[in-house]
Fold this protein.
Amino acid sequence: MEKPHLLILAPLAEFLMLELTNHYHCHFGRTADELEEALTNAGDQISGVVGNGGSVVTDALLARLPAAKIVAINGVGYDGVDVRACAERGVRVTNTPDVLTDDVADIAVALVLMTSRQLIIANRDLHSGNWAAGTNRLTHKASGKRAGIVGLGRIGKAIARRLAAFDMQIGYFGRHRQDVEHRYFDDLTELAVWCDFLIVACPGGPQTFHLITSEVLAALGTTGTLINVARGPVVDEQALIVALETGGIRGAGLDVFENEPHVPEALLKRSDVALLPHVGSATSETRGAMAQLVLDNLEAHFQNRPLLTAVV
Ligand code: 8YV
């Protein structure tokens, strides 16, 4: 049997690419030019699409891929995929939930500690030979504070479990109250007023676009810190910059940005932020498990077996 043709929309780990090219005929659409060429040369033959959390799959793209019946996303978030269009066209969508939950939650905790204890500045002081400055600068305690989690899904719950071990009180905001011991807030602004760390862990996409507004940041207040390990566009980045510049909030810990890989200069130059280049799931163990899930979902699809982690 001829290898199925796949469209690869994102740069993927070498070990995943190796497996994909072993089992599939891969066409690349990682840039606009590459994509146009792949669609022109092989649009009719491509029977599956592989992307990552940042990949965009629109109805217009699907229209040019009439034989494509699966979109396999190498990430838990699939906010760039028009899931409704996929469902209408009978295209299945898979993602990689669960396997990355621990790593992303770990990074959220790291950002809580990096911001509250100003670890980046302390580290810089030491490297620049200024040990005394590092020891004399007093920071803020993290243990025992209040964490407000926006989106108590798999990752939000894993963050809550970790921060509970820091004796933190946990509150959360989401569409529904859940059967958990944490305090539920049906109003995001009230959660922001209540907590010391507002931790964004909800899905991205149109429903949560700019959920964190200047009003929410004002409610978080001068002793509050914003942490985002979800998607950049959930936070109004300009409003965040203004809140930081005016001292409206204490700091921010960000693993995601509105327009990745662009990070605004106004954030780069600040010392009250901890910034990471979207490394939430970036461990070899987790990226390996994610890759395996992508491969297993593709294999199941092409062998007409049930998908392992289907979104639609
Ligand atoms: C990665 C992610 O950025 O899972 C997600 O939604 O954002 C991350 O794990 C990415 O998708 C890895 O390719």
